[in-house]
């Protein structure tokens, strides 16, 4: 299928104006078969009567007429529309049979009860695989959906409540017109959903899931409704525009990857409905996801980027807003620390490697656009926007946002539209800031000189001086083994050297205190992190240590040794949980093989100490299950806890134990409809050739649900199993050409999570990089290059010592 280019999109947008879509969707064949049928009726005007353009139609076109005239066949996913009139009516009948692993639409069968569920996910240009449309963001129009479905099903879509009528053995759901939306912002979900509704803050809120997960949704419903109400109120106030629709639904669906911001009807993978009681990190992660998608109601739906080069206007802002809202409007007041210790660390890695790119860059076509849904656009973009908020001031930032939405509601925008409003609100010239942060790749670095009368902040940027920015530098005094902040200075950086009005001779200085900018700092002082007084200060110190590790300036052993005291004093539960995972990751992926047992034991002992605290026991035991070799104690600790039981079995399988009878017992006791995936994960961890072959076929055969793919793949690639894993690196390279089969998210997941991290050497990585230079899609190629760089850093860390430390 042809990928729409920016030039083609601009030409089409200049030629036509879409007046409305009326889309009929027929799902009546789905319970027994794979087929979805649609009819798109598109009315549009043209500015040049007699001209020619095309409509996107990548499903099988059964019949198409333009102003009553039959059209020819579609080629490359496009129908040519010639002889356009001033006002036109296009009718296209399509069918899509590949609803298992194709693009745009998916049929899932619940293994618990055989019930069928359908969802659509249309970003960036996947609507064309379901119904004919002008599939580009700047051709917005109202959409009216009519859906024919089995009578026992519930259908959800953007505009909320529908009228229903019976016709034969089916029910027709007729939805009101949406506001003007880009095609990718629309949605249809259907199936025998369990539904919970509640009125909060004047909004009619709905939660949906498959029937077999009803108890889990009911358990979490109160928290989800509270969060949704808090988010809608916060965003409405900060953006000067309440969400303009009374109804707001969130639909948790099976076999989905991540979440999608469809206007008024967000879809979310139901793997986020945690089958065990969720941990603090899991709860905060789900909070961030739901607030991220909610922010898209404004950044993406109400105001939409003109073209994909301004994807940051959607994703960076949604990521920033989610953390901002969580911190200011919910109980998750340490969300910025959590953001730094998890997502932002991935951005620092990406931005210092071969896949670094400007946050905003030219995008030639949609295929290239798929490759920038990444850690540069998301967490780095969010951090840069937090820097922009600090740079202009929060009041001016809020005023600029209000003006932006007031001026551009239901329209499309570009970079300058937003920065012009912020410049006007703040009175600051943002040209240099914009050029430095949005159109320049790479990471700034700061060090502090303390030899003179006053400290001097010395910065370097990707091309010389640091970018213009405001960041905090604080002086700390040590008392009774703890560091207390005695002074905080906001430094306005506009040159290489910035003299700071701070006392000389402080016991400790923290550069980028409060994490207001996106920059790495030196020196890394892991021994100081545990002494700092706040979660965000500790997180800044940990980030410096992590950055030293990935750049070969610190050893895995020193990193773990520095992390353990921090996680034991951390007061923010979700951040402490992140440190546990990070310490285990460093021991597992970055340490030399000879040191792994000792580092695992160090993490295990820390986990055991934390487990003595009832509020941290669950998290600590999960980490223990990952690193311990004392299986008897592990199973005793797990007791009747099914989730911990599975984790213990994965560890037992990894260590070569026989798990067959215990797996059968847990399968019988586990109420999770997807429990069989846990059994596959146990099998994946085994150092057994037959088990590896069986699981590899399941992974590459797309038999593992997307929401579980990362967990199963992590169990497959285990340290100490190089012999049995030999050859799977080459099999990964053989799989790569088919990795992009289907939609954007699966392509990323399969490329990212199946990449070999053990049983791999520099030669294999070189072949992977060579493959990325070949005939792979931009998304797959970039993901391969990024993973190859990360694993190359791991290999160097496993093989080398720094400063004599092994």
UniProtKB/TrEMBL annotation:
<dbReference type="InterPro" id="IPR012778">
    <property type="entry name" value="Pept_M1_aminopeptidase"/>
</dbReference>
<comment type="similarity">
    <text>Belongs to the peptidase M1 family.</text>
</comment>
<dbReference type="Pfam" id="PF17900">
    <property type="entry name" value="Peptidase_M1_N"/>
</dbReference>
<dbReference type="GO" id="GO:0016285">
    <property type="term" value="F:alanyl aminopeptidase activity"/>
</dbReference>
<dbReference type="InterPro" id="IPR027268">
    <property type="entry name" value="Peptidase_M4/M1_CTD_sf"/>
</dbReference>
<feature type="domain" description="Peptidase M1 membrane alanine aminopeptidase">
    <location>
        <begin position="226"/>
        <end position="437"/>
    </location>
</feature>
<feature type="domain" description="ERAP1-like C-terminal">
    <location>
        <begin position="508"/>
        <end position="768"/>
    </location>
</feature>
<keyword id="KW-0479">Metal-binding</keyword>
<dbReference type="InterPro" id="IPR045357">
    <property type="entry name" value="Aminopeptidase_N-like_N"/>
</dbReference>
<dbReference type="Pfam" id="PF11838">
    <property type="entry name" value="ERAP1_C"/>
</dbReference>
<dbReference type="InterPro" id="IPR024571">
    <property type="entry name" value="ERAP1-like_C_dom"/>
</dbReference>
<dbReference type="InterPro" id="IPR001930">
    <property type="entry name" value="Peptidase_M1"/>
</dbReference>
<keyword id="KW-0862">Zinc</keyword>
<dbReference type="InterPro" id="IPR042097">
    <property type="entry name" value="Aminopeptidase_N-like_N_sf"/>
</dbReference>
<dbReference type="Pfam" id="PF01433">
    <property type="entry name" value="Peptidase_M1"/>
</dbReference>
<protein>
    <recommendedName>
        <fullName>Aminopeptidase N</fullName>
        <ecNumber>3.4.11.2</ecNumber>
    </recommendedName>
</protein>
<keyword id="KW-0482">Metalloprotease</keyword>
<dbReference type="InterPro" id="IPR014782">
    <property type="entry name" value="Peptidase_M1_dom"/>
</dbReference>
<keyword id="KW-0031">Aminopeptidase</keyword>
<keyword id="KW-0645">Protease</keyword>
<dbReference type="InterPro" id="IPR050344">
    <property type="entry name" value="Peptidase_M1_aminopeptidases"/>
</dbReference>
<feature type="domain" description="Aminopeptidase N-like N-terminal">
    <location>
        <begin position="115"/>
        <end position="184"/>
    </location>
</feature>
<keyword id="KW-0378">Hydrolase</keyword>
